[in-house]
Specification:
117 residues; alpha+beta; two-stranded parallel ribbon
């Protein structure tokens, strides 16, 4: 029941130092959001850990949206750094998924961003 509108896209440029793929801005992000929402609609923005969504909220606010909120800990939350924990190294601290709030991996294709071929 939530739209997937990426503010950034993954690239195929892998950073061995950061152990992650580089991201690039979605230049059409604001236009995509404007096509679905009015400036005074309530919009809650989420990413994996809350960092990209915070930047997305800032972009939407600058574009004139007035009721935009960041889900602070994101979907997966923070990495467990406790060496004694059975979930060390996993995103098991806070986050939507770890809070037992209802969620599903069953995606509605009409709500998911799909790159045009």
């Amino acid at each position: 029941m939530a739209y997937n509108i990426p503010s950034k896209f993954f690239t195929m440029d892998f950073s061995a130092e950061k152990k992650e793929y580089a991201l690039k801005d979605n230049d059409a992000y604001i236009e995509m959001v404007k096509s679905l929402f009015k400036p005074d609609d309530v919009i809650m923005v989420m990413c994996r850990s809350g960092h990209r969504s915070a930047a997305s909220v800032n972009k939407l606010t600058e574009a004139g949206f007035t009721k935009v909120y960041n889900i602070i800990d994101g979907f997966e939350g923070d990495v467990d750094k406790d060496e004694k924990s059975p979930t060390v190294g996993l995103r098991a601290i806070n986050g939507w998924k770890n809070s037992k709030i209802p969620m599903t991996y069953a995606l509605d294709p009409t709500l998911v961003y799909q790159q045009k071929k």
